[in-house]
Each structure stands twice: as structure tokens, then as C-alpha cells.
Amino acid sequence: MLGVTITENSETRWHYPRRRPIRTALHKLAQLAFGALSELEIIGRENLPQQGPLIVVANHFSFMDPALMVSVAPWPLEFLGGFRMPNAPAYVTWLPKLWGYFPVFRGTASRRALQAAEAVLKQNGVLGIYPEAGNWARVLRPARPGAAFLAARTGAPILPMGFDGLNSLFPSLRRGRRARVTVRIGGVFGPFRAALRGRERRQQLEEIGHEIMRRIAELIPPEVRGHYSEDPALRAAAQGAEVYPWDDEPEE
């Protein structure tokens, strides 16, 4: 991914925003659904910028995370996300396709997705990314390179969010209760820059990724901060959680 070349006129190929009618309807549906099915608390609305360019990042513990981000966002959102959704129930996998997102193929440069993401940011758009690149674990893991790459490439500021309680939503409903779901919105940070190439660039992008995850960690409960916990025992327990469980199933 770090060697990807992105053409300078790519914004002419991906207009922002897209799919306004269907996304407006899905945005309202997400708001209604979380309002009806959960006790939703949103903390830090004052940190929401009025406009982009902006990269919105959050922890990824549930297949419902994108819908929650959509319900909170006051601007049109584009998403960069995995081509496969192996940890999501089959009955919801059509929703991301209906919304429309830029698919990333794990283990490849995903040049087209990165071109589209940069085009969105060049048009002062807002891009949603889950830096962990999957929701198979329940503790925070190190970031994959994509969010850091785009942040350094474009200079777009970053807005962190922390999601808590989504995995209790359906179990609570089965018991006749609404789960408490919390969204904490942190302050905008960045911009970032990195060297053009070589080992120095890789190291700088890795540190940007760690900084992104540290900002997210501040917004979620201490017991799920995983690799970014201040507790050595919790950090030790999180080792291995970053391993992708489906590496033996190549994406096509």
C-alpha cells in the first residue's frame, strides 16, 4: 500500500457527494433505529466540524459501527472498507452495498479505493475509515496503513470517535431491554506529513497510525483499549487480537 501512486486528476472520476436520495433515507433510518432500539448517548457534538476535508476514524468492534457513524454524521459520508464482510450476518451485508463504499482488498494496494478516497478529500469531503480494518476482536488493535497513508498524503485533519455498547444491542433486546450505546467524539487533530519514500516514511506512517489509535483509545472504556491500554496486563492479553482470522481465505 505504501507504494501506491495516485493520479492528480482523480477527483474528476469520483464526484462528492454521491447517492444523495438513498443515503438521506438510510441516514434517517439509522437515526430512527438507534433511537428506538437503544439508549443512545452522544458526547462531544461540539467537536463536529461544519465541513471537510475530514477523515473520521473510530474503533471497530461491531458490524453495526458504520450504521452508527452514519447516524451521528452531520455531513455526507464516504466509506473506505473491506471488500469482504466475514463477521457480519448475511442479512445485513446488502446495506453497505446499497450505501455505496470504496472496497479495499486485503493484501493488495487497493489503488482504485485510495484514488477515490483522495478524490473525496480533495473536494472537501468527509471520509469514514475504521483503521483496524475489521471487527473480529473486542479490544483495540493497531491500525492498518490506510488511514495514516491518506492522512499524510492529503493533509486532511482527523476526527476520532469512540463507540461503546453496540455488541450488547441485540442480546439486550432479546431480554426485553434497550442497551446503552455511547458515542464519544474527540477533538480534531492533525494534519500529518511523512517523508516521500523509504524506511523513514514507513516509520512515520506507523507512528501516525499509533497516534490515531491512541486518540480513539481515549474515547472508549479502559478495559477495551487493548494494545493501547495503560495496564500492562491488558496490553499483554490483547496480543494476538490483531491477527486477521481469515488469512487462509484469499479475497478475489
Descriptive report:
The protein has 252 residues and is an alpha/beta fold. It has one domain (20-44, 51-115, 135-142, 156-238). It contains eight helices and seven strands, in the order αββαβαβαβαβαβαα. It has helices at residues 20-37, 65-72, 94-99, 111-122, 145-154, 169-174, 198-217, 232-238, and strands at residues 38-43, 54-58, 77-82, 102-104, 126-129, 158-164, 179-185. It has a seven-stranded mixed beta sheet with strand order 1-7-6-2-5-3-4, with helices on both faces. Strand 3, helix 3 and strand 4 form a beta-alpha-beta unit. The chain is globular and about 55 Å long. Mean pLDDT is 87; it is low at 1-8.
Element layout with pairings:
Blueprint lengths: L19 H18 E6 L10 E5 L6 H8 L4 E6 L11 H6 L2 E3 L6 H12 L3 E4 L15 H10 L3 E7 L4 H6 L4 E7 L12 H20 L14 H7 L14
Parallel strand pairs: 1-7, 2-5, 2-6, 3-4, 3-5
Antiparallel strand pairs: 6-7
Helix pairs in contact: 1-2, 4-5, 5-7
